[in-house]
Amino acid sequence: MAAPRGNDAHTIRPERRHTRRSVLAGLAAVGALGAAGCTRVASASGKDGGDLLERLRAQGVVRLGIAGEVPFGYIDRDGRLTGEAPELARAIFGRLGVERVQPVPTEFGSLIPGLNAQQFDVVAAGMYVTPDRCEQVIFADPDYQMPDAFIVPKGNPLGLRTYADALRRHAKIATGTGYAQIQHAVEAGFKENDLVIVPDQVAGLNAVESGRVDLFAATAVTARMVARGSAKAESTKPFVALVDGKPKADGGAFAFRPTETRLRDAFNAELHRLRRSGELYRIVRPFGFTEAEMTTLTAKELCRR
Asked: Which residues form the Solute-binding protein family 3/N-terminal domain (predicted)?
């Protein structure tokens, strides 16, 4: 792959232990940058698939919408942008002739509105491809697929391995704002009003460690990364949730404005090259991803589900 270029080239260093303070400190370190990112980016005409790629090449920087989620896209303790999606963006946009990536932190629920309001150029947050989202943005093909897992107290005293287990044991379940695990829990029989919705995975871990909930539901990679090093909690083995009675394979991808098909297609072409060479997995592996979570799913497939 082309090595990262520009001022933000650095060695991938995923954090080993994350706290709310470290995440917030990182966001504060780029506060001025984030504020600058709220300025609208130059819009493309949308004619013939848009001209944003040419604009990005000319200005030498692409603005990435991130949600401060480990391990998908976040600011580390040194104030540097990292995570599975930003590191992959560095590699792909470098190949496309765009030298630098710049973070625009926002809340997860604001990523699609912010993208379509031209506050940044692309969503780089490991966002799941869903039919509802496909009506608002266009996606590259997924760069990973992901089962669910739980964060539970050490030893998993209630034996919680699936949503059916949790329902049967009347477990108190928490998950994150906007997480797909909300739907997964509801499909299993939970009432949405009974779920404890927390702002992020750090709050979810804290809720389990303090005994306020019996489990925190998240993606398998999030559960592994966040629970690692905890003296009071652990992650369960990954499992595939059932939706409409069928196993549901979720895939995460980069999102683009609907007018920017040329940029999306060029991005996709480089993504597929990285996948074929094995470089994609080498990029995301430091963030806790396994070979089993690599995928050949397409955005077209997931948009139809």
From this structure: 61-291
